[in-house]
Structure formats: C-alpha cells, structure tokens
Amino acid sequence: MTQVPQTKLRSGASVTVLGQGTWHMGESGSNHSAEISSLRCGLDLGMTLIDTAEMYASGGSERVVGQAVSGRRDKSFIVSKVLPSNASRIGELVNAACVT
C-alpha cells in the first residue's frame, strides 16, 4: 500500500496532505453509520486530516467527525470552519462556536 504524503507543521507534527471532506455528512440519520465507517476507514488507511465546518448540516458533520475519531483523537487532525457570523476580532464568538 502506498503511504499518503505528509507535510510537517510548525509544531513539528506531521499531517497528511490529502484529507477527508465531510460536506453533506450528518444531514441524514440513515447514513450515520456509513459516514462514521468511511471516516474511520480513511484514518485506518493513513488519512489523518479531516475537514469539516460548522455550517455542514448545521453542525451535524462535526458530530459525525467527533464520533469517528473517538478513541483516536490523538491521531487525527481536524480542520473546521466557523460561520462568518461567528467570526470576530475578539474571538468570543469563535470560541463559543467551537464549544457547542
């Protein structure tokens, strides 16, 4: 099996240059198990980067990601985006968006 290419972050950690997208995940409960399984499969294959966003399924995508990385969060890099309405200079809205 071919290794997924990685890049080194300033922190010294390495992350794969190819990630898994989650747009449309979390929209339907009927796909929930398959979505979790697909993300876990990607992690098993070495794809440690997962991209999600607060606006994907109104947070549903982030919940799917949370379940998929449960027990292996230390081996995952999660990139999430907040809604423009939650972006602020002070960061209070960003922090609140990340907690919920």
Task: Explain what the structure shows.
The model has no long low-confidence stretch (mean pLDDT 89). It is built from three helices and five strands. It has helices at residues 32-44, 60-68, 92-99; strands at 6-8, 14-16, 19-21, 49-53, 77-81. It is α/β, with parallel strands linked by helices and 100 residues long. It is flat and about 45 Å long. The chain has a single domain, classed as TIM Barrel, CATH 3.20.20.100. The protein has a three-stranded parallel sheet with strand order 3-4-5, with helices on one face. Helix 1 packs across helix 2 (60-68).
Structural class: alpha/beta
- Termini separation comes to 38 Å
Overall geometric form: flat
CATH architectural category: Alpha-Beta Barrel
- Annotated CATH topology: TIM Barrel
Taken in chain order, the helices and strands follow as EEEHEHEH
Number of strand segments: 5
pLDDT < 50 runs, ≥5 residues: none
Identify the strand order in the major beta sheet.
Answer: 3-4-5
Mean pLDDT metric: 89
User: What does the largest sheet look like?
Assistant: 3 strands, parallel
